């Protein structure tokens, strides 16, 4: 039986691939407003490690939590779900 990992995974879109071996991934989620009961989009940007520099801007990727690799980089690119058109 495969061991269950307790690390978080996040699906998002690559917004920048300009750094060497680093991508910036934007993850969006819908949150219901407490007063107006309307769904609002919230987003977070994560810096993730991309060892082979294979991601391009607008790719949809899956990232996983990892050990700290630099001041802001705490995620690792797991797989590319969809290539940019």
Explain what you see:
The chain has 85 residues and is mainly beta. It has a single domain, classed as OB fold (Dihydrolipoamide Acetyltransferase, E2P) (Beta Barrel). The chain is built from no helices and five strands. The chain has a five-stranded mixed barrel with strand order 1-2-3-5-4. Strand 2 and strand 3 form a beta hairpin. It starts with 8 loop residues before the first strand and ends with a strand.
Structural class based on helices, strands and sheet pairing: mainly beta
CATH superfamily: Nucleic acid-binding proteins
What does the radius of gyration come to?
15 Å
Extended strand count: 5
Which spans of ≥5 residues are poorly predicted at pLDDT below 50? none
The main β sheet shows up as: 5 strands, mixed, barrel
The CATH architecture comes to: Beta Barrel
Counting structural domains, the number is 1
- Helix/strand order, N-terminal first: EEEEE
Number of helices: 0
Shape: globular
**What is the overall pLDDT average?**
95
